[in-house]
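seq as requested:
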Amino acid sequence: MMPYKVTYLRLFSLLLRKPMEDEYGKKLTRKALKAAPAVYRQMLEKTDDIGADNPMAGNIYMGFVFLAIWKAADGAITPDSLRRVTKSFMGRPIIGKLMGGRDINRQEDLEAAKAKFHRMQEWADAHPEYKNKTWDFNFDETKHRDGSYYYFTRCPLEKFARENGFLEVLPVACEIDYMTTAFSHGVLHRDYTLATGGPICDYWIVPDQIKDPE
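struct tokens:
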């Protein structure tokens, strides 16, 4: 199981309240947010430990907030409505400040982003006890001339969702990748996700000033 941490749950629940009230009203919002912590804890207890200091662990702690709220609402929240709430949440200026910072139109920032992805794989290589449980980064510097490209064949979030009845809502969490990429002035191009039955999750990230990427 993953260690229980509440940082993402507390912060995101606070910032999700207004978008949720706009979409669902105060009664359902209060019900879902009140029940979500217990669901969140149970989810972490069922999740394979990928290492407390794994640089990818935040993806689980963040993604599980949205999944737990959906589950806690007991069928009253649909994936489509949660998608709208998530977009509204991600559009809040404070989220852009928390998750932004780089401009990958600058070559040095693009290279720094690439190095960050490689460090995540290097962490997995250095921790063989977790390597087959965490995301597997596969890089291909020859596939595209512009930006950077990599893909996963293994995703702990997808594994958990498939085994525990969250697969219908997991694509909502996957779509956050498009918004977090935009915070760094990038555009994510993607053909597949494991959550929707694809063979991989692919990421071709291109600076947004490039209009016709290759």
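The two ends are 42 Å apart (CA to CA).
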